Amino acid sequence: MSTTYIMLALALGAGALPAQQRDGGGTPPPPDSVRLTRVDAVSAALRANPQVDIAREQWLQARARHVTAVALPDPSFTYSLDDEPRVLQLGRAGAKNAEIGVGIPFPDKLRLRGAIAQADIRSADYRYTQIKQQVAASASKAYDALLATRRRGRDLREGRALADSVVRRAQARFDAGFVPRLDVIKARVDLSQADNDLIANERDLANAEAALNRLMGLPLGTHLAQADSLQIPRDLPPLDILEQAANASRPDLGDLRSQRAGARANTSLLKEYWLPDFTLGASHDYKTPGSPGYSAGIGVSLPLFFWQHSKGDVAESQHRELELDATLRDANAAVGQEVRAAYASAATALRQALFIRDDLLPAAREAFRAVSAAYSLGGASSLEVIDARRTLLDAQTQYSEALANANAARADLEFAVGRPLDSFLSGGSRE
Hints:
Elements: H1 4-12, E1 34-36, H2 38-48, H3 50-69, E2 76-82, E3 95-104, H4 107-175, H5 181-216, E4 224-226, H6 239-249, H7 251-270, E5 278-285, E6 293-300, H8 307-376, H9 382-417
Parallel strand pairs: 1-4
Antiparallel strand pairs: 2-3, 3-5, 5-6
């Protein structure tokens, strides 16, 4: 596959690709099936997967917290009846006071609160991006797993046809008196095994479809018709380039950097405990004899017990900064290790797929052709034909699994890097 589909779907949300060669063979899809390409599956997963919805709502919550962080306090209004001779004798109150007040934080504190909230928004945005990348990679791998299962079914049907041919030829040779009845029994046992393998493949196909349907938010029993084929992926870019790209592109590293920036702003805010927060107020006594009297006041908090701040919340925030510094250093090392491990897996899977395609499969086909021809001429036993057929089927199964593993390993490497690998390369994928 072309793994750029994952990142294209993240950027565009939807898209259509030119029709690619379908995996040949197999039964046609049901008439009510949903036809989709790999990029369609990724786009559908990004639209409907609940994990993406959760991350998006968390990002919107962070934006709402920013509004709250920089909001000015609401003014307060108080009306009181004072100097009452007894409790609740409101009509005989000696004073009627109306007061309005508002608290005004120091301007730089509003700026720092906004910086903390902005860092929170960036962190949520990075987490949102990472979840989308995870879902896209999972959808791509589930799509390829379904392709591999269908390819396995095609190989099993071909093997079943060959096994049936061996049964008919063994029966004909037995009827002619050339082979013992044991040859016919062995051929029929091999045919029965082929039928059992096809039944098991139907179960695997249903499970693979359900897994992809769940990722795309479709009913689990929806039949899927896949328009893309399972191909050997393209060559890998150099490892050192991918490591540098991962350090700059990984959303989890960006999340930690944003958290660290927010922690620094929080430390600066807490260190401003000595700056005054103003409280402005005005009052009017409606019952004092003579002209109405007005009053105004201002209140300033005095951080008399300063050590409670420096050794309490300020110290906690400073240690939070140091914690995030250490976490980021560890995360950088972990990302490098993850990229190297994913690169090794992708390179090995690619080499295995190429070896099976270029060496193992041709040899298995040629061995089966030679034994089958010899059996037709009476120079080989049915047991040799059955063994050659099973060897060919095993090679075909290994190739299907190798294709799925190579594409899955490439998707894992893209996730580890945080960027599409095709952005580093030119050229096309190999059949």
